[in-house]
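Issue 218. Parser rejects a valid record. Input:
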Amino acid sequence: MLTRADLAKYPFLNEASDYIKELGISIVDIASPDFSPVLERAEKRLEEALSKGRVSNEFSNENAEILSFPVSNLILSLTGEERAQRRFALAESKRAYELLRQESPEKLDYIARTTFGWKLSKIDAQPGKRYYDFAISLADYLRNSVHLKEPKWKLPNRILDHGLVYATREELARLLEEEVRRRIVDRSSKPPGEIPKPLQPKVERTRGLITKWLGAPSHYELPRVPSPEAMPPCVRHLIDNLAEGKNVQHMGRFALASFLVNIGAGEEDIVKAFKPASDFSERMTRYQVEHIAGKRGGRTKYTCPMCTTLKTHGVCYKPDDICATIRNPLSYYKSKARILTGKGPKREPS
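Output the parser choked on:
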């Protein structure tokens, strides 16, 4: 059912991997002049992913498109930068979505079944009723909709019938985007002990791009605030996750930004804390930080959400003894700062 053009569009498919194995190409082969289009496309994929968070879907050389995908993955793995690998996976999955949403229901059905093992069935149009293209198993739907924030993805807002969730063709493509992203992250190749000599210049160039677009690794670099040691466990955990390029949900990002705004962190430092995020956009991040700080919109400065809200959204992380005495991360910061300065803890009024 799939053509070579399909493998070029979706190089993460099992058929694409089989095709590459049959070619029997080595790293030495890739570095030869005959394969220069492959390396050029691989580097372009990486640069687009790191700088824009998206990979273009226009190509003229199908073989170069198919082969460049694993080469990009290899070069990226040789840098040892997990945050860059997550950004690459996100960018490639967005590219896949733009292509998948244009496919026929038959091809979407085939890809979902054979590549990802989904259980689903196609639905024929019924006169006078809202049209859906697919009925997806509840497990497959929940696994891929859990991080989608729009209300329409919440299960109470879906049609559920005998363990099947109804979805349109475009909705199925969006759910497949999540599956693609996860697959690319899970299949990130483990680098060999040494960087193959033919790829050393490409790896170094990619490291430079990572630093340029994602910033230097900052796992232990906290934003400059009066008392960084007084930050609560949840905030430190959010900063660590962002520094590692891990996905942080909307509530976590809002909690972190509002917390930092209220304890006196500079806007530049706050934007920098978000820079390693796989979907980082400096323009959007800066706008949101300024909005939270009360410099945009209604000019209202937002405070940090209450601990009960953070627990509901899964943001609370390893609460300690001080957490039991406060109701807001800002109160934790004040209480811990008093302990560190020798002034002793102080409970919030009941």
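Fixed in the parser; the record now loads. The chain has three domains: 4-98+190-213, 101-182, 228-340.
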